[in-house]
C-alpha cells in the first residue's frame, strides 16, 4: 500500500522539483537584469563550459552546429538542469532538507561560474544564481511540506485504489501553491527577459548616431574584372548579414560608443593613450578590402569572408604611443587586445607595423560595425587568422611579449602565431550535384591574404591539372574568384582545386586538422553527371 501512496506523490514531487528549477531560473533572470545579463546562471555555466571545452570538441561543435553551437549548448544545459530538478524533487519527497540543499548547491555552481569568467569584475555576478537558488530551495521545501501533509496512514487507505484522493490530502492547497509558483516564475522570468532585452538600448542608440566620416585614404574601387557572376559563386564582397560569426559570447556585448574608452599601454610604451570613439572618428581613417578567415575553417568550409573595412591604422597609434617594432629595437613583440567580454587576442607587433593595413576597424561595408562583428571597435589584420588578429568589442590594447603572456586560444593549445594558409574552395557545383552532360561552370574562391593568389588549377578525377580563369585581383589582402568551363561527361567525377600564391608556393595536398594553426589540403567535390 505504501508503494501505491508513493505512486501519486512521486510524480507530484518530480513536478515540484521542476517548478523549483523554473523558479530558480526565472528569479535569476530577473536579478540578472539588475546585475548584468551575462551573470545569469545558464549564460555563466555556458560560458564556463566554453572556456573549459577541449579544443577538439569546440572545433567539432563549430563544424557541426556553426553559429548555432551556442544555442545547442544552452539547450543542453537546460535539459540537464530539467532532469536534475526532477531528480531533486523526488529526493526531496523523502529528504526535504537534502532536496533543498541540493538546489542551493546548484546555486553555488552557478555563482562560481558567473564570478569565475574573465569578464566578471564584481562579486555581484553571484547574486542571480544565489537568490534564484534560495527562492527555489524555499519553494521546494514548502511544496514538499504540502505533499507530506498527507498522513501516511490515510494515504495508504485511499491512494489510487478506488480513484479517491487520500483523506487529509490537501489537493487544492497543493495545486494552488504550485500554480501560484508557476505563474510567479513565468512573470518574473518574462519581466527579467524584457529588462535584459532592453538593456542595450543606449548602445543601440549610440550606434544609430554614428556617421562614418569619409576616409582620408579610400579603398581603390574593386576592378570590374574582379567580380564574377557565375551562379553559385560566393559574392566577392560578403554582405554583413551573411558574414560568418565565430566567438565565445553567449550574450552579444552591447557597448555604448559614447562612454567607450580604450587604453594603449604596456611594454615599450612611452606615451600611454586613452582614446574615445570620437577621438578615433576624428583621426585620418583608411578604407581597405580585407578577407577575414577563421582558423577553425575546414578545407572547403564557410568561415571566410571579405568586407570593406574603415578604420584607424594601428601602426600610427602604436607609433604615437612610442612603440617600435622588434626589428627596430622595440621591446614588445606581442600586442594583446582585450575585449569587454574578457577575450584576449595576441598579434605580432612586427606584422602590425610592417606596412600592411592592420586596422582598428570602426566600419564594415559602409556601416558602423554590426554588434555581432564587434561594435564599436575591432581589429582586422590582413594575412593572420582571426583568433590571432581580429579581436571584437575591444577595450584595451597592451604591449607585451610572447614569452610572458599567452592569450585565450593559445592557452587552449592553438599556435601563438598563425599566418593564413593558402587555400581554395569550389563553390559550384555543390557536393553531390547532378549536372547534365555538356559545359558545366566550375567556380569558386582562393585566398592567400597578404601574399596574393597567382594561379588556380583544377583537376577532374586523376586527369591533368587545368588552369582556371582567374578574376582580376582586388588587392593581395582579398580572395580571388576563379572559374573554369568543364565539358562534363556522364558518370561520377571528383573535382579538385589547388591554388598557388605569389611567393610561388602551391597549396599542399597534405591534410592537416584545424588545430593548432589552420587546416591544409585540397578541396574536392564529387558530382554525378547524368
Ligand atoms: N571578443 C572576441 N573577439 C573575437 C573572437 C571572440 O571569441 N571574442 N573570436 C575571434 C575569431 S576566432 C574570429 S575567426 C573572428 C571572427 O570575426 P567575425 O565573427 O566578425 O567573423 O573574431 C575574432 N575575435
Ligand atoms: Mo576563428
Automatic annotation (TrEMBL):
PANTHER family: SULFITE OXIDASE, MITOCHONDRIAL, SULFITE REDUCTASE. The lineage of its organism: Bacteria, Bacillati, Actinomycetota, Actinomycetes, Kitasatosporales. Residues 251-409 form the Oxidoreductase molybdopterin-binding domain. The chain crosses the membrane at residues 71-91, 98-114, 126-144, 174-192. GO terms for molecular function: heme binding; molybdopterin cofactor binding; sulfite oxidase activity. GO terms for biological process: sulfur compound metabolic process. It is an enzyme of class 1 (oxidoreductase). InterPro entries: Ig_E-set, OxRdtase_Mopterin-bd_dom, OxRdtase_Mopterin-bd_sf. Residues 1-33 form the signal peptide. This is Sulfoxide reductase catalytic subunit YedY. Its EC number is 1.8.-.-. It comes from the Bacteria. Keywords: Membrane, Oxidoreductase, Signal, Transmembrane, Transmembrane helix.
